[in-house]
Write a structure and sequence with these properties.
This protein is of the alpha+beta class. It contains 21 helices and eleven strands. Among the domains are: 167 residues, Orthogonal Bundle (Hypothetical protein af1432), CATH 1.10.3210.10; 95 residues, no CATH class. A four-stranded mixed beta sheet has the order 3-4-7-8. A three-stranded antiparallel beta sheet has the order 5-9-6, sandwiched between helices. Strands 1-2 form a two-stranded antiparallel ribbon. 51% of the residues lie in helices and 12% in strands. It comes from Halogranum salarium B-1.
Length: 407
Amino acid sequence: MITIKDSVHDHIEVEGVAAALLDTPEVQRLRHIKQLGTVRLVYPSANHTRFEHSLGVYHLASQALSHLGIEGTLAERLRAAALLHDVGHGPYSHNIEALTFRHTGKYHDDVDELLARGEVGDVLRDHDLDPAAVAELVAGDGQYGQLVSGELDVDRMDYLVRDAHHTGVPYGTIDTERLVRELTFVDGELVLDEGNVQTAESLLLARALMNPTVYQHHVARISKAMLRRASERLLAEPDVTADQLRRMDDHDLLASLRMTASTTELARRLDRRDLYKRGLWVELDDVPEHVLTAPHEKIREFEQNVAEQTDVDPDEVIIDVPAEPSMKESSSRVMVNGDVRQLDHQSPLVGALRTAQRQQWRLGVYAPADAADRVGEATVDALGLDIEGSLVNYVRTGYRTTLDQFD
């Protein structure tokens, strides 16, 4: 057994297959991938990694297994899946995942090949565990995969409290001990036991509050968009493939960006936090449907049209259209009066949070500071945005924003 001191869960005891997996190159690589990517440019202490998060997920999974009475080979499979659930992450966590997916068709939880070969595969087989079965759990498949990836998964429980701890914000605090203790299976579904509607709401509320404050903070979004643009340029070069990019860590990617002529300037900006500025920051209801559903190639056309109109390098115009708001946690199940009920059918809080989430959504347009205003103005026409009279120029920082930012 190995005992590790953790900043969130105190002491974590690692044993069995997890202890053997701990020093494999695939798991140790996670020490060099920041959990929150570019969010550290907003919150300087947000330097925690996927490695410590994986330990936290393993710890909560072990607690859940003990509570649920799951033992033997199934328990070892689940512990392995919990520790390995993030080994497929590329550099800067989710920041460039959409880019690599377009080239490879794989997300970070597509880990079949990664678990089947190398030292991880050897360790799993040495412990009589089928790598394919562990990979299915990582993907959230089957009844027990819900513990690793689902509406009430231990992954979510750990990252909320860990991200709140390391950013210093008070919004992600949840009672992980109670959440784990109240988990149960009913007809193959992972649910919270009787009397836990408020427990489920706390998970939903924590995520809803962390989203605008941390995950979708405008500086984090701008820097993430710049990192994506730089990574796109890198993949346009002949020396780096998308599969190679997926297996880099943060240091590998930044070094590659610094050493590649077409990405040197963006690397310099990210190094020095010399970021683009907002030209537009637009509410959901003001964005036409054809923009919300536009594929990546169409957004690039919009960017190129705006660049031509404003005499700006096309690579320096970024139109950032987030996915429409969703609230996966709202479909979590809770027992109420002996029935399994979906949280959004039971809690009036869900509707209010969905409304808030839609109101917080913003389309962003970013460009270098000296071009941001004119790029923003040109984008209004290029996208057909209906925002006449709703924009003001915030002269102290030079970005354009909607009036609600001054409330």
